[in-house]
Give the backbone structure.
Amino acid sequence: MSANSLPEGAAVWHSLEVDKALDLLDSNADSGLTPQETQQRLQKYGPNELEETAGRSTWEILLDQFKNIMLLMLIGVALISGFLDLMALRSGSLKPGEVPFKDTIAILAIVILNGILGYVQESRAEKALAALKKMTSPLVRVIRDTRLVEIAAKELVPGDVMLLEAGMQIAADGRLIEQSNLQVRESALTGEAEAVNKQASLKLPEETSLGDRLNVVFQGTEVVQGRAKVLVTNTGMTTELGKIATMLQAVESEPTPLQQRMTQLGNVLVTGSLILVAIVVVGGVIKDGGFKNIQELLEVSLSMAVAVVPEGLPAVITVTLALGTQRMVRQNALIRKLPAVETLGSVTTICSDKTGTLTQNKMVVQSISTNNKTFRVTGEGYAPTGDFQLNNQKISLEESPEISALSVACAICNDSVLQKEQGEWAILGDPTEGALITLAGKAGIEKDQWNSKLPRVGEFPFSSERKRMSVISQVEQVATGKASSRGVDPVIASFLQSEPYLMFTKGSPELILARCTQIHLGNDTGRLTEEQRQKILAENDLMASKGLRVLGFAYKPLSEIPPSGSDETSEQGLVWLGLVGMLDAPRPEVRAAVQECREAGIRPVMITGDHQLTARAIATDLGIAQEGDRVLTGQELQRMTDQELEQNVDLVSIYARVSPEHKLRIVQALQRRGRFVAMTGDGVNDAPALKQADIGIAMGITGTDVSKEASDMVLLDDNFATIVSATKEGRVVYTNIRRFIKYILGSNIGEVLTIAAAPLIGLGGVPLTPLQILWMNLVTDGLPALALAVEPPEPDVMQRPPFSPRESIFARGLGSYMIRIGIIFAIISIALMWWAYQHSHAPGYQGDRDTWKTMVFTSLCIAQMGHAIAIRSNNRLTIEMNPFSNIFVLAAVVVTTILQLMLVYVPPLRDFFGTHYLNMQELGVCIGFSALMFVWIEAEKIFLRIMGKKAV
């Protein structure tokens, strides 16, 4: 077969015999490929590398920031203002001491700062693919032209024969040709931490899920034990890792709800502003009967355009989100992308991985069965403390000596070590064996002590073919507790007659039981009857149906140490001890977190690569699903169309044995149903789904670099409960963002209406210059808005459903509030403006005739302070609140008021901002009119309380 006729990756390699796979790839297991063949295939398939598609350049990201409609309008305002200043400069009509182009410079400075702010947030380079590339091995050993050679991994081609041994990272996907005790850690791909035993001789069904393909190996996984010869079947982007890279790059980032709302806000504000500008200009031209005052009308229009744009809003939102990230870090949630803080508050569905997130990632024995009794075992993690219960009643070990006997087997037939590190119990070795040592500790059997009582003198190690392990121990004489007496420890005395050795065996219950002829009952041994055999098998099936991993234990007294390689004959005629069922136990705090999710209207969903029985047991225990709920497996999902999955996705809360593309499809189906999805994951296989999800959440402890780079948030403690805490914080942030948007835009509307009214009611000139408006929008609006951003959460924040992520920024009365308050603001300001104009133009007035403008400016600023104090609560009156519960609002009001007065009474600032000195009477009038704003908002609260309505 020529290189040009090789299969295009469509072959399902795990369903083929080894010889058939070799034929398809025209390769030889002993001689490999010739140099000519490898060159042809390298040209056809390309190097064994992950390819990266081009993304947006740095300049494109920067330029995109200035496509924002509000910034475009400000740029237009700056250019027109600069043109008017240039005309005034040329004509010599500038006022004495007036600085030309100061408005233009100030506006452009704001535009540039906002552009830079947006760029910094968005320019964080996607490094997920770079992290994927790190998972590929640099060098690999292959057979080429009958010779063993070491080549760069990128030179691998389909048909190469690759050699693997312990510690190696696998450089390409391949079909096993032969193997010896091969174990591969595939957690990066499947999400499951336990190493997989591989077998070359298997031929599997085509629909076998990724985690169950025991006759193939995958790029990026690691050989833990054994060795193998592998036929390379897929390289580069056709490997499972390559498919993930393709999916990662195909996922397009959608704007977050906050970004969408800000875009909508900008469109509404700019459109409304342009309409109002047109009305003012047309109305002014009609009123004047021509264009003689067109420059004045243009100045009014510029001021209105600047007034309508909340220049300080992007900075306030950024600081609010940044403060939110700090609070979340203290709760073990690290935010990688700033908008994700607010986005969390909109989550309707949390899709969570099982291992390590919902569970402790620690195997814990849940039940044991011995002497025809099944005991429940209590305790958490690897701590060797817990009780044994029979029918929910605690029992003593004296009542059931068979528990101690079984626990000795758990401790002796074991290669792991239990130790305490910094106050935490931890395991060195296999988690399953760790669970067995912990069980023994709960029964008072300490491994170290029993290793001296039963020192190991031989063993038959575990292998994937044998599915069992045996340890031969020498029986040492110990103090029995009787006066001056030494002998065998009472716990194992019934195991022996006079034999000097004991063999303990553990493994697959069916295989161990088949080798047993006797059974240990209490302190005695009897013949194993067929009825007892069937009872044990039934109990094994019952444990397995609950999602437990079950091991069988037996022993055999020996008169001599069996010779090496005699396991088949030596491991016969065993005495049955019992069954041990273990589970990666749920985190204790997750049940409460799931309940809190339910109360908050958020649906938790489990998506795992583990078996469906285990997934169902954990999900039911935690309250994610109910007894009898459907479990959708990867095989079933594979056969579904996107439409069928979409119809079922709201009905299924457990997905088991899923592959990377399945996770992505589930998230996409939920999104098409209008759900707002948070997705957790730790493996490489999770990266595409993490990127697709509205909130991608990676694991900080067990997570791969790939998953972290694809995520929006990293859980520093890998705990589901942390997600719920972060979601609560997201809701608080969104509530506070709405609060200060109400505050800022209510005043902006008042400013625009006040400016528009000046020429229409016949007052000369513009009451506010663009520079003064920028001051109000950035300082007198900005500082109190920042203070409002740290308001503590409302008590019911997690007792209501999430607000729709697609709701308008003006939803739930916010728009009507802004318009209503803006109109009241304008009425108060226009009334003051009329009075101040008459006052400053009255005969005999000693001050500057433009003093009325400074009174309007000062009144608007101080009125905002009253607004900030009143808006802290939608329903409670200010006198009902502790003024020091948010000390920042009080500080912001005091500081901003002092700064505003400095603009009036400090000569250099007065000259720069174009203000005029106010006497005490004028300042008192400004304060009096400003106080009316506070009085109005408080009166609204009283009115709504009387009417029995709740404010927005």
Summary: Residues 593 and 721 are 5 Å apart (CA to CA). The first helix runs from residue 18 to 24. The chain has 33 helices and 30 strands.
